[in-house]
Amino acid sequence: MSKMLLSRIKPPQVPSPWSPNVRKLIRDTIHILQTQRQWQTSLQTQFDQSDVLVSDVAHLVLDRVPDAHLGLNFFHWASQTPHFRFSNGLAYSSLLKLLARSRAFSEIEPLMRNMRTEEIKPTLDALSFLVRAHADSGLVDKALEFYSMVVEIYGRVPSVIACNSLLYALAKQRRVDVARKVYDEMLERVGGESDHADKSSTSIMVRALCKEGGVDEGRKLIEGRRGGGFVPDVVLYNTLVDGYCKKGDVGSAYSLLEELKLKGLSPTLASYGPIIDGFCKEGNFKTIDRLLMEMKERGLINVQIYNNVIDARYKHGRTVEAVVTVMEMVENDCDPDIKTYNILIAGSCRLGRLKEANQLIQLARKWGLMPDKFSYTPLLHAYCKQGEHSRALDLLAEMTGKGATPDLACYTALIHGLVVAQDVDMALTIRDKMRNVGLVPDAQIYNVLINGLCKEGRLSEAKLLLAEMLDQDIPPNAFVYTTLVDGLVRNGSFEDTRKIFNLAVEKGIALDAAAYNAMIKSFCKVGMMKDALLCVNKMREEHNFPDDFTYSTIIDGYVKQHDMDSALKVFGHVVKTRSKANVVTYTALINGYCKKRDFRGAIKTFKEMQAHGLEPNVVTYSIFIGSFCKEGKLEEAAFFFELMLTNKCLPDKVTFYYLVNGFADYTPGATPKRTDESEENRKSMFLDFLETMISDGWVPCTATYNSILICLGRFGMVRTALQLRDQMINLGMFLDSVSFASLLHGLCMEGRSQEWKNIISCDLKEQELQVALKYSLKMDKYLPEGKTSEATQILQSLVEGYKSSDQEVED
Asked: Residues 78-127: pLDDT tens digits?
């Protein structure tokens, strides 16, 4: 009886896949598919000679075929055989699994359409395969579609492995809400004990919640799953610990660590690591030391933990003994790596311990480690910062010789240091060396070089560097243009400034406020105020809003053009739109009034500035002093000088220049007294001493310098007084008795009476000491009531010492 007839008489018996004959048939079928060109004929012959129908083993063959192409070929051939049964869906489902394993996604949809037409349902296993394959490949929406198909057809969820893949993919895309719905459905739609969501499912979900800051929700999820055979393990606890730490709640993470230990679980490195990192950020080193001791006892401590702690100690300003730390790590069976040494080297360099940093590089080599660019760069920076550029150059050569290739950061540090040290030529040489080793200078390096050249007035070379950048397709950034524009402005190259600025605008460079301010300053400098205002408008169009410097520059520009009406108009706009002007803006306006000799207007503006809580600066006071001196109003000049000192504003060289030149021809009684109803008419200390010295025979220039020294000492500005003393010596002036008395008074006022001999020398003879004592007693009168100076006592002792010496000689 033929096989065809038998198949019609009795139901087919699906052969066991474990039958030796079936296994051999499957192996032979796959071998024929892989090796023979005429495989269709060979397969037909094989199955004709066999007692097994193609339809009975098609799904078994497809389960074992190594790739989708062979599987599709076999499936299409098998589907044409007379007895191939479509109704069971096994072959279709096995093909779906094969296509899923092979990621042949383009073949899946046509096959699914064919199955729907034939009303064949894919198996739960096949659909689980599809969910997993699509989720693992990032095709999350398609995976969700197949997930929903499983729920609709079978009333349950796919396999745990498939669901976990879907959860992971959703979490990766931060679709936590959707993941939570899938997870909840996994718990609700269970078809048996093996289908429960496992610990991996919970771990994925908790990690996703923690990543979004929902650590407490993740913790509740774990608590809600307790019982029923679910026991949280250390991995789940570690997930929560990491979540709390990333949220900045190290305290909760630490409490969870203690809870973990109480439940009999052994913490891992992943338990301690995030907590130690969190305490490092807080600088809680007391707790860190306790945790390190605990980790050491458990054998968990590693070099990364040590590195994080060492780095944190430096960042929080704690003392780190570098060599001792290395030895401590070695004793704890934790060998330092090159990152350890790099952290210690960087820390030593920040503290200025360059000798220690060099020792650490040698120590790293001794332990068989190869110092890299991160080892040398901090030292390179430190040498440049301290101005030791020859040592920095030697270090660069050492790096290259030892195989540690310097990177862009190393060269940038060295070039910047050389430019700061005003050695631009060497910086340019280093730039050339960079090119020789294949490193292309970036816009930052060009900016530093252009800045250095501009400061030295080498504008043609700076412009050549800009042209070089453009030729090499290195796009100059806003800083490069700003630096060059500012340098050209400072050197008065107006036309070049405008060309460079326009070039930047044409190239669409997003210039910042500094670049616009530099150009505005250039226009104001040459009196092109309309162009300056147009530049302000252009600045606004580019969303760079004018700042205090912008307005101060415009006001100053109008002042120099003697156009006070326009200056006041701009000032009014500033007050109206910016609530209040700053010191620079007020000072520019004061300068305008002074230039017009409108001192009433200047003083009114000065008082208005103070009423707005703004403290005048050295420029403000110097403008008043210089203007009053120029007009011969020396009483007013002296008043503003003492007001300056009273308000603790340090004078500078310009202030001293105005005073010395203004009082060069001073004659006591020739200057009319101040008559200002709004100010208290008190006696001027400066004029009092100046007049006394001139009456005693001092020339006005020397008397002025000494009067300044006396005032500086009285107002506690000894450092500035000593600088002025050095300036006097450089001008060829000899320090006399009054100079000595004034400096001594100042030192004693600062409580430095015991160290005066180390700061000022005394070569005065007895008569000069008597004069110094006379002026010291006069200075005492300006001290607060009831207060005396030790300076007078010291001078009296020096005078008495001379008298005693004279008496001994006479005897």
From this structure: 888 776 655 568 899 999 999 999 999 999 999 999 888 888 899 999 99
**What is the residue-wise DSSP string for 566-631?**
HHHHHHHHHHHHHSS--HHHHHHHHHHHHHTT-HHHHHHHHHHHHHTTPPP-HHHHHHHHHHHHHT
Q: Would you say 94 and 70 are in contact if contact means Cβ atoms under 8 Å apart?
A: no
Is the four-CA dihedral 503, 505, 506, 507 of positive or negative sign?
Answer: positive
Separation in Å, CA 638 to CA 99, 260, 673, 683: 97, 77, 11, 10
pLDDT, mean over the chain: 85
Measured CA to CA in angstroms, residue 678 lies from 327, 600, 603, 643, 681 at distances of 72, 12, 11, 14, 9
Residue at token pair 């002296």 = 638
Position of tokens 């453009």?
470
Dist CA 337 CA 364 (whole Å): 8
Question: What distance in Å separates the CA atoms of residue 536 and residue 554, rounded to the nearest whole number?
Answer: 9
3-state secondary structure of 747: helix
Phi–psi pair at 230, nearest 5 degrees: -90, 120
Determine contact, residues 92/113, Cβ cutoff 8 Å.
no
The string of pLDDT tens digits covering residues 164-217 is 999 999 999 999 999 999 998 888 865 444 446 788 888 888 888 888 888 888
- Nearest Cα neighbor of 379 from 346, 401, 412 is 346
User: By percentage, how much of the chain surpasses pLDDT 70?
Assistant: 92
Position 2 confidence tier, pLDDT thresholds 50, 70, 90 = very low
User: What's 189-258 look like in SS3?
Assistant: CCCCHHHCCCHHHHHHHHHHHHHCCCHHHHHHHHHHCCECCECCCHHHHHHHHHHHHHCCCHHHHHHHHH
**Is the separation of the CB atoms in 553 and 524 below 8 Å?**
yes
With cut-offs at 50, 70 and 90, classify the pLDDT of residue 678. very low
SS3 for 136-176, per residue?
Answer: HCCCHHHHHHHHHHHHHHHCCCCCHHHHHHHHHHHHHCCCH
Q: How far is CA 798 from the centre of its chain?
A: 59
User: Could you tell me which of 521, 447, 530 has the C-alpha nearest to residue 488?
Assistant: 521
Contact criterion met (CB below 8 Å) for 647 and 616:
yes
Q: Is the pTM of this model over 0.90?
A: no
